[in-house]
Amino acid sequence: QEWKNTFATWDPQDFCNISKVVLPTDTYWSPPIFILERVNGQNSNLDYMAVMHNGSFNSTQAFQVTLTCSLMILKFPFDTQTCNLSVASFLYPAVTDLVMKTRRTPAEMMKDSQSYFLTDGEWKFTNLSIIEYIEELGDGEFSVVTYLISMERQPTLYILNLILPTCALYLLDMAVLFGPSSLEDKISFQIAIILGSSMLAVILNNILPTSSNKPPVIGTH
Fold first, then answer.
1. Alpha-carbon 189 to chain mean position
2. Which among 137, 43, 24 is positioned nearest to 90, based on CA atoms?
3. Averaged in consecutive runs of 10 residues, what is the pLDDT profile of the chain (221 residues)?
């Protein structure tokens, strides 16, 4: 966060050329910021902020949060999810007191975010966009900044463990059905295929996401 306080200025020449000081966060007023989609989180212990001689305040705090996000898994495991992270302050109206603006462009934040994101996991960070708007709540209007985070699922693991074995069972089923083997052999093969399909159904039930209104296409087939 970065803001200005015109009552906290000084001339560096009068104070041994000191143009910057670091103070505890509770020393001066700081804007209360809330994350609307937050359900859980852990704040850092870095409760300090930098004060410049021209009245500029800079407070940087790293914290880990858990957010709510509506998943669309119709195309699982080839899906792309977009989650929102909305930052707002509903204590100060945007018209008279507090207006929030982003200091960097979405391209700059996208570049920095990709350097911190672990690309060897299940998800691939693909896009980041920013929306600044005014939210009407009751009789007041408040400033809100929303970050739209898009992530693409890496389907390699699901292809190897689910899709390829399922296709192999279907091909084996057709080969046994139209093959020249006897009835007893066909029955034995069909029982083995049913057992294999049951195991794949258990695996599918364990790995398919459940937090979605529409079931994935792969689960219905």
1. 46
2. 137
3. 85 90 84 81 74 88 81 84 88 76 83 72 85 83 89 86 80 75 74 77 71 66 59
